[in-house]
């Protein structure tokens, strides 16, 4: 449950990302790899929850799927006017995104968990507020134009790790805050 400065939410805020050994997470608006098991992992983990993402990531998903993530409520961060279908909501700032996500969590999904699904600009802003981080470590050094920001690993402890061929599913939980 985040209590990081003004970014308050009663929900558990969980980051989810696939990141390569060289910190690359994106290329040309898409992921630089195709790992079907990771897509399944993302779908199963986030299903029936609100998912906060930046406008660029949202547009990439629209291009790939033709619609926002099915079965979830997408909260799109953007400064632009944007028409969205019923299962997507526009937020113009972080506070608005957290409020919209919390509303969707309680009213639509009956959960207290909210996911933060990138891209880099959104991870960067919300990392300090995350309670948990679910990482697919991709054991590769691909070319890319978007990198996961440096994060305060000392504030998290690894709680699970499942190694697979070429990647690992790893979960981190924030250590007790001392501030
Ligand atoms: N590997 C992974 O797990 C993963 C996950 C997600 C994304 N990605 C990749 O990352 C890349 C996209 O990341 P990105 O960093 O370029 O873009 P992004 O974070 O998806 O979107 C950036 C946009 O979000 C909006 N935004 C961000 N913070 C905001 C705020 N506080 N208030 C209002 N609007 C805000 C702005 O939209 P406006 O310009 O409309 O104002 C900004 O231009 C893609 O290649 C994607 O495939 C990878």
UniProtKB/TrEMBL annotation:
<feature type="domain" description="DHFR">
    <location>
        <begin position="12"/>
        <end position="179"/>
    </location>
</feature>
<dbReference type="InterPro" id="IPR012259">
    <property type="entry name" value="DHFR"/>
</dbReference>
<keyword id="KW-0521">NADP</keyword>
<comment type="pathway">
    <text>Cofactor biosynthesis; tetrahydrofolate biosynthesis; 5,6,7,8-tetrahydrofolate from 7,8-dihydrofolate: step 1/1.</text>
</comment>
<dbReference type="InterPro" id="IPR001796">
    <property type="entry name" value="DHFR_dom"/>
</dbReference>
<dbReference type="GO" id="GO:0006730">
    <property type="term" value="P:one-carbon metabolic process"/>
</dbReference>
<dbReference type="GO" id="GO:0050661">
    <property type="term" value="F:NADP binding"/>
</dbReference>
<dbReference type="InterPro" id="IPR017925">
    <property type="entry name" value="DHFR_CS"/>
</dbReference>
<dbReference type="Pfam" id="PF00186">
    <property type="entry name" value="DHFR_1"/>
</dbReference>
<comment type="similarity">
    <text>Belongs to the dihydrofolate reductase family.</text>
</comment>
<dbReference type="GO" id="GO:0004146">
    <property type="term" value="F:dihydrofolate reductase activity"/>
</dbReference>
<dbReference type="GO" id="GO:0046654">
    <property type="term" value="P:tetrahydrofolate biosynthetic process"/>
</dbReference>
<keyword id="KW-0560">Oxidoreductase</keyword>
<dbReference type="GO" id="GO:0046452">
    <property type="term" value="P:dihydrofolate metabolic process"/>
</dbReference>
<dbReference type="InterPro" id="IPR024072">
    <property type="entry name" value="DHFR-like_dom_sf"/>
</dbReference>
<keyword id="KW-0554">One-carbon metabolism</keyword>
<dbReference type="GO" id="GO:0046655">
    <property type="term" value="P:folic acid metabolic process"/>
</dbReference>
<dbReference type="GO" id="GO:0005829">
    <property type="term" value="C:cytosol"/>
</dbReference>
<protein>
    <recommendedName>
        <fullName>dihydrofolate reductase</fullName>
        <ecNumber>1.5.1.3</ecNumber>
    </recommendedName>
</protein>
């Amino acid at each position: 449950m985040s209590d990081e400065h003004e970014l308050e939410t009663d929900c558990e805020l969980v980051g989810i990302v696939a990141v390569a050994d060289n910190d690359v997470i994106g290329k040309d608006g898409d992921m630089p790899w195709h790992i079907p098991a990771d897509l399944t992992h993302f779908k199963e983990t986030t299903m029936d929850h609100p998912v906060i993402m930046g406008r660029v990531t949202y547009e990439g998903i629209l291009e790939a799927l033709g619609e926002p993530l099915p079965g979830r409520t997408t909260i799109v961060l953007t400064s632009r006017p944007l028409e969205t279908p019923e299962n997507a909501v526009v937020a113009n700032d972080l506070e608005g995104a957290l409020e919209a996500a919390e509303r969707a969590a309680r009213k639509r999904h009956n959960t207290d968990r909210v996911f933060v699904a990138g891209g880099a600009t959104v991870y960067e802003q919300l990392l300090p507020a995350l309670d948990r981080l679910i990482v697919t470590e991709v054991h590769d050094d691909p070319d890319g134009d978007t990198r996961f920001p440096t994060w305060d690993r000392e504030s998290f402890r690894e709680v699970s790790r499942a190694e697979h061929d070429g990647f690992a599913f790893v979960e981190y939980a924030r250590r007790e805050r001392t501030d």
